[in-house]
Design brief:
It is built from ten helices and eight strands. The chain is α/β, with parallel strands linked by helices. It has two domains: 158 residues, Rossmann fold; 63 residues, Orthogonal Bundle (Arc Repressor Mutant, subunit A), CATH 1.10.10.10. β5, α3 and β6 form a beta-alpha-beta unit. α2 runs parallel beside α3, α4 packs across α6 and α7 packs across α9. This is DNA-binding response regulator. GO terms for molecular function: DNA binding. One of its GO terms (biological process) is phosphorelay signal transduction system.
């Protein structure tokens, strides 16, 4: 028997019957973002068929909430305090727990590598935090209907990655490697990175060795230089 959070009903949207999700979980550690998303969902609840809205402020409580209530729709950030891109692992874990869960990544990262990794981890849609309300609602509706959503500009840049015509040096890295590289760029030690990501020390060492090979660098210092340079480039994109 399904819980109330799992029950769905059919609504009419543009002449087509789609499944209206009744339970939504928002995972973000910024109170302003949580409040803003809640207001958007409440204002659009009649059209989207949303009955319940739950919130979590970190990946641990977010996963526990999802594990308990099995929400049909999850909106999650990718970065949480010192755990940059930890949302990628959270997305994978929720998909492993409940196949077919509809997840919308809601992030400040407009790097196509990060977007590609989020989609590859199981996010059905991706929308930037500075997107207008109409775009956020469009993304929610698409994900709700089981369709993917990427804003055209982001979709184009992600497509360029797959064609090999992009100059993204990090395109070959896995989601886990991107997380580790991001923490390295902020001066985190191997041990701290292992603790932050809940992985073994040996896993971090192995990932760094793999990244050196993929990026064509000889040592840790060169690897950190690449990471810092990439962070500066991303910051310039957002100016």
């Amino acid at each position: 028997m399904k819980t109330e959070a799992q029950r769905t009903r059919l609504v009419q949207q543009g002449g087509k019957e789609t499944v209206a999700l009744t339970s939504v979980l928002i995972i973000d550690d910024h109170p302003v973002v949580l409040g803003g998303l809640r207001r958007i969902l409440e204002d659009a609840s009649a059209n989207l068929g949303i009955r319940q809205i739950h919130e979590a402020t970190d990946i641990v409580s977010g996963y526990r909430n999802f594990h308990k209530l099995r929400h049909e729709l999850v909106i999650t950030d990718l970065s949480f305090q010192d755990r940059d891109l930890a949302g990628l692992s959270l997305i994978r874990r929720m998909n492993a727990l409940q196949a077919g869960v509809r997840i919308l990544a809601f992030s400040m990262h407009d790097d196509p590598v990060v977007v590609s990794r989020a989609v590859g981890s199981g996010a059905l849609g991706y929308v930037l935090k500075d997107a207008p309300t109409a775009t956020i609602i469009e993304a929610l509706r698409s994900v709700q209907a089981g369709q993917g959503y990427l804003e055209h500009r982001l979709a184009t840049r992600v497509a360029m990655l797959s064609t090999g015509r992009s100059s993204q040096p990090l395109g070959a890295l896995s989601a886990r490697e991107l997380q580790i590289l991001s923490l390295l760029s902020r001066g985190k030690s191997y041990r701290v990175i292992a603790d932050n990501l809940s992985v073994s020390y040996r896993t971090v060492i192995s990932a760094c060795s793999s990244m050196r090979q993929k990026l064509g660098v000889q040592n840790l210092a060169e690897l950190i230089h690449v990471a810092v340079s990439e962070n500066k480039r991303r910051a310039q994109w957002r100016l």
